[in-house]
Amino acid sequence: MIMMMYTLKRSTRKSGHSVITTLPPDVMKKLGIISGDNVEFVIKDNEVELRKAAEKKETVSPEFLKMAEEVLDEYDQAFRGLVDR
């Protein structure tokens, strides 16, 4: 199996308290990412791996969210009164 390897370079620039760079289209395609996706940096010794972040699965059931919304609606005035204290 022949592995193709090539180098792409990008510059960095300051943005607020961060330093940013762009991702080349080839890298985005290879990682299967589009604008707005989350990426993660895995740091191992002196190397950094960039990969698409795993999608977060819904951890709260829709039923629980509906129940919580009903409780918040029911006690809305009481909660507002606590804020004003």
TrEMBL record:
Pfam family, one: MazE_antitoxin
Transmembrane portions of the chain: none
All residue ranges annotated as the SpoVT-AbrB domain in the record: 13-58
Matching SMART domains: SpoVT_AbrB
Gene Ontology molecular function: DNA binding
Origin: domain of life: Bacteria
InterPro entries, sorted: SpoVT-AbrB_dom (IPR007159), SpoVT-AbrB_sf (IPR037914)
Protein name, UniProt field: Addiction module antitoxin
Species this protein is from: Listeria booriae
